[in-house]
C-alpha cells in the first residue's frame, strides 16, 4: 500500500510538471512581429536586399517595394492576423491580394511571405542597420 501511495504521488508530480511545460509553450507561441523588416536575398543566407521592407504594428502591416527597372517605390497597407498557434499568419492586403506568412523560418528566424498562387517565398529579417528607403512612406 505504501508503494502504491508513493507511485501515485510520483504520477501527480509528473502530471503537474507536464502541465507547466505546456503552459510555457503556449506563451512562447505568442510572437511579437512588431518592427521594421528588410527583404533578404535568400531564405537560407539572410543577407539584406535593400529593395523591399515591411513594417508591422500590431495587426497593421505595410509593404514598400522598389518597382523593377525603375527607381520608384510603392507602398501597400494590409492586415496581418494569426492563422493558428504555430507561427502561421494570414495577410489581407488593401488591393485584395491575400498572402500567407510564417515565423520563424530557419535558424535565422526569418519572416517568410508565401505567394499562394505560385508557392514562391520571400523572406524578411529585422535588421536595424538597414533603414527603409526615404521614398517609403510608412
Automatic annotation (TrEMBL):
It comes from the Bacteria. This is Lipocalin-like domain-containing protein. It comes from Leptospira selangorensis.
